[in-house]
Design a protein that fits this description.
Blueprint: E1 2-11, E2 14-24, E3 29-33, H1 40-47, E4 55-60, E5 63-66, H2 72-81, E6 82-85, H3 97-107, H4 113-126, H5 142-155, E7 160-164, H6 172-187, E8 192-195, H7 199-205, E9 208-213, E10 216-221, H8 223-226, H9 233-242
Parallel strand pairs: 3-8, 3-9, 6-7, 7-8
Antiparallel strand pairs: 1-2, 1-4, 4-5, 9-10
Helix pairs in contact: 3-4, 3-5, 4-5, 5-6
Bound molecules: adenosine-5'-diphosphate (ADP) and magnesium ion.
Length: 243
């Protein structure tokens, strides 16, 4: 359902994504691991043109985009088919939890306000935040803010959900509730591409683990293979370090 071919991103002379190939099946959960600075965030960001790749093709559902000559229309198409969960939540500080969830439904998807509000209310209930609907981000814990961030992405009904280290900015006490919500999303057979350092979670949730180093996919396979029987020396070293 999702096909990435030859995806290439350079910042100046630095090649950050070196012709990445990656196919993701419908409902598949792919976890990306790797040392910092290897292009994991850039990979996610290139899929919706938060960073514009210089080359490669991205296919999501019925839309295929040649990165080198992507039109505005195609970029909007990729953005409508993906939903992004950021490490730092990226909520609007001046909007309530409910308004944060409604925002893209109205501005990106063009839904009527009333319908967006009904959808946001439904999502707040699913994420256990019904009583926080009218709260502003500053009045929420880190865990609650990230659950709003995930709820906002869930509300979009996107073909692909992208998670960029969704628990890395959290105090340890809030990590569990955010991972629980991600498990709940996974149970809905949502296609997910997740960057995380939570190895136990990766083992449990991933259909496939992808190890990146230096802008390339070095090794991939089921968690039992990649995490328990790593072949590449760089992956072995990485796993020793993250324990
Ligand atoms: P990761 O998420 O694996 O830690 P990133 O994708 O954030 O890695 O970054 C990969 C490389 O690209 C790093 O060397 C980083 O410094 C560089 N990079 C990322 N964003 C930019 C940018 N906007 N301008 C220049 N270099 C960048
Ligand atoms: Mg990153």
């Amino acid at each position: 359902m999702i096909g990435i071919q030859g995806l290439t991103k350079r910042f100046g002379d630095t090649v950050v994504l070196d012709a990445i190939d990656l196919d993701i099946a419908d409902g598949e959960r792919v976890v990306v691991i790797g040392p910092s600075g290897t292009g994991k965030s850039t990979l996610l960001r290139c899929l919706n043109f938060l960073d514009a790749p210089q080359a490669g093709t991205i296919r999501i559902g019925d839309l295929t985009v040649d990165a080198a000559q992507a039109t505005r229309q195609q970029i909007l198409g990729l953005r409508r088919r993906t939903a992004f969960v950021f490490q730092n939540y990226a909520l609007f500080a001046n909007k309530t939890a409910k308004q944060n969830i409604m925002e893209a439904l109205v501005t990106v998807q063009g839904r009527p306000v009333q319908e967006a509000e009904a959808r946001a209310t439904e999502i707040l209930a699913q994420t256990g935040l019904a009583d926080k609907a009218e709260s502003y981000p500053a009045a929420l814990s880190g865990g609650q803010q990230q659950r709003v961030g995930i709820g906002r992405a869930m509300a979009l009904g996107a073909d692909l959900m992208l998670f960029d280290e969704p628990t890395s900015a959290l105090d340890p006490e809030w990590v569990g509730e955010v991972l629980d919500l991600m498990r709940q999303v996974a149970e809905q057979r949502q296609t997910m591409l997740i960057v995380t350092h939570e190895m136990q979670f990766a083992r449990e949730i991933a259909d496939r683990v992808v190890f990146m180093d230096g802008g390339r996919i070095v090794e991939q396979g089921p968690p039992s293979q990649v995490l328990d029987a790593p072949q590449d020396e760089r992956l072995q070293r990485f796993l020793r370090r993250v324990g």
